[in-house]
Amino acid sequence: MDLNVLVRGQSNALLFADRGGAAALERGLEARLGAGVDVHMLYQWGTNTSTIHSGTAFMRWDTDGQQASLLRYVRALPASTKDDPTATVWMHNEFDQENVSLTRDAWLSEVRADAALVRGALGQDAATTPYTFVPIRYPTGNNFAPIGDGMAALDADASFNAEISWAAQSLAMDGDGWANGSHMGDADAVKLGGDLAASMAETLRPLVSGSAPPPTTTPPPTTTPPPATNQPTSTTIGTGPDTLVLKISQDAYQGNAQYTVQVDGRQIGGTLTASALRSAGQSDTVTVAGDWAGGAHTATVTFLNDAWGGSASTDRNLYVNGATYNGATLSNATAALEREGPARLSFTDTDPAPPGPQPPTTQPSNPQPANLTVGSGPDKLVLSISQDAYQGSAQYTVQVDGRQVGGTLTASALRSAGQHDTVTVQGDWAGGRHTATVNFLNDAWGGSTGTDRNLYLDGATYNNAAVSGATASLMSNVPDEN
Predict the structure, then answer these.
(1) Over 90: is that where the pLDDT of 390 sits?
(2) In 8, 184, 351, 386, which residue has its Cα 20 to 30 A from 131's Cα atom?
(3) Which helix (H) or strand (E) holds 452?
(4) In what order do the strands lie in the sheet with 403-410?
(5) Are 87 and 119 in contact (CB under 8 A)?
(6) Is residue 328 a contact partner of residue 271, using CB atoms and an 8 Å limit?
(7) Side-chain half-sphere of 210: how many Cα atoms within 13 Å?
(8) CB 61 within 8 Å of CB 73
(9) pLDDT by residue (tens digit) across 448-469?
(10) What strands, in cross-sheet order, belong to the sheet with 38-42?
(11) How many CA atoms lie within 13 A of 11 on its CB side?
């Protein structure tokens, strides 16, 4: 018995296929479906017959050519392959959730039209072509609700034959070099393949036995979230006579919210985990101890692990409910962090300023533009990079299609001087669309203009041709993709 699994989506679908996830899914399905079942994984990227297209939004596939590429791939399959039952693993939602005007009905209409074309190209109907939607936990964009609601509608529609797997919500997403980033890591890909095999096997088993598959409306058991504790906690981090006391709560979903605390750009303590639930009207108490000089200071609470399951009750968020400094209440010290990123609050220490000259920062003296080359190969992506330096220079990494090229890079040229570093990224990339990502690693903020570390992408060329739209101002540790 031959069975096809078609993988489609964006950069995380590419990583899933390339980093062992597809192989793990194939092995897992064959082991669970029994002897005589031969699973064929169908996917391709980097060509004009690709099923996977990094850096795209599905809602534009029909106009930007990606849908035509997918259909060319399916139509070119051997007739004997197109005759076999074909499951689709769908990993779209990343860029679409950045579209604040997206509606459920618009998404549903596009998906139904697309599925009809793919099923027509296979010469099959819904009964033998089930869909598994796999939402990816992505740190940018917060308009997932229309997509999640649309997936749920298709899950409930027996005539469409679809299910939702939330397996990807538990991934570390450390493919960018840190947890809770934009891309899955190697271990993530393999784990996701195994988890999908466990759930999809039950959906596909009737196809193997020759009967129509019953639609599944229950999420796979491996993704059932652990119960969250709702008891407020008290934690002290740092040492010193001054105390900044934060009141923290969360909306818990598939685990508790995690965060870090910085003062004047320097992290205090490690990664903290929220406990108190906002819905219960309670807060954790986090005492940040230090010895801060007289004057203005900035504290930053950075939310690390946003998660969204498609509804208000399946959403992980972090809240700063208030703060005091040395017993005095701080004004405007509240924030609702509904996506990963920082919330900043200011406080002032009334101690007299120390006499004499202040200690020098590590601001580079007389910086000169640098010329760097990373990677190897005939193709050249040349980036123009500059920075605002504060307490040291900006650091960053460069990825192409989710793979890091070179190590951690350090900016030299100052934007204020009108100069830029030249970073040549070399590789051997196949024809087609590719995505380069510049990841800013060490944001810092001192509370005023001139005490802010930022990174800038000032332009780019690819094989000597200018890349349109290749500029970005990175004011926080959020990657820019072009």
Answers:
(1) no
(2) 184
(3) strand 452-462
(4) 403-410, 395-400, 436-440, 480-481
(5) no
(6) no
(7) 0
(8) no
(9) 777 888 999 999 999 999 998 8
(10) 38-42, 2-9, 86-91, 131-133, 162-164
(11) 27
